Amino acid sequence: MPDLSQNISVRILKAAEAGHYGVPGVVCYNMEAILACRKAAEAKQSPCQILLFPWAQDYAWDHLVNLASDVCRSARVPMSLHMDHAQSEAAIKRAVQTDKFDSIMVDMSHYEKPENLARTAELVRYCHARGIATEAEPGRINGGEAGLKHTGDLESILTTPEEALQFIDTGIDFLAPAIGNIHGAYNGVENIQLDFPRLKAIREASRGKVALVMHGTNEFTADIFRQCVAEGMTRLNVNQVVLWKYEQYAAEHAGRVPLTEFLETGTALIQERIEWMMDAVGSTGKAGDVKI
């Protein structure tokens, strides 16, 4: 078994688990979001992870990857770069070949469980041999986001503790359980129905073996984030939660203000929301917990 104890993504999430707080994993599509992650992390003295979808390489070759990696490496607080929802062997190997990612989500959840497990195990070995930490999704989290294929035509499958252990046996470092969370819109906080007893059982089964990661947080309130952390989530992936003010500003001001002002204000609005997130999940002031 490769020793990934010095992997920065592993160290960030192990520290969060030990300290009983969460860390934002921010889905980034552009320069403004990537820069906002570092600005927020340094302002709040918080660890942070930048998340890119394979779309980033489809769209911009390795240029966004290189920017995000440089931001993580040059930050004065612990930051790491994670490829989220890599849903094919080709996407995973392309990400690995950049030599920039600290961790990769091996997302084979669109396959039935036996094939999901087999493909995950093979690709985890491939990533680990190159020093890259891995994440997988037992069950299936439905929905879609910009840059992420919608799985609405597939059945949502909630994770059981037994399935969590089967995926842990593949060697993964992080586990993203399906507990009623979905990608994309819930269309109202009242429609967010998370099975916390299920999460507690998964946490007990996986304790000390993997870190738990929360997907599908659009429309989450601070209280919901805090409850997820209290039940053991260590990284909480965010998309619209931190981007909505920026998108609203863009809709109203694109082409109407100088481009420099547009970029600076847009970055600041994303930073503001990431800082809110850091307060909500308890990572503010925790940068010193991670030894770099």
TrEMBL record:
This is Fructose-bisphosphate aldolase. Its cofactor is Zn(2+). Zn(2+) 2 binds at residues 107, 137. Pfam families: F_bP_aldolase. It catalyses: beta-D-fructose 1,6-bisphosphate = D-glyceraldehyde 3-phosphate + dihydroxyacetone phosphate. The active site is at 84 (proton donor). Catalyzes the aldol condensation of dihydroxyacetone phosphate (DHAP or glycerone-phosphate) with glyceraldehyde 3-phosphate (G3P) to form fructose 1,6-bisphosphate (FBP) in gluconeogenesis and the reverse reaction in glycolysis. GO terms for biological process: glycolytic process. The lineage of its organism: Eukaryota, Fungi, Dikarya, Ascomycota, Pezizomycotina. Zn(2+) 1 binds at residues 85, 183, 215. Belongs to the class II fructose-bisphosphate aldolase family. Coiled coil: none annotated.
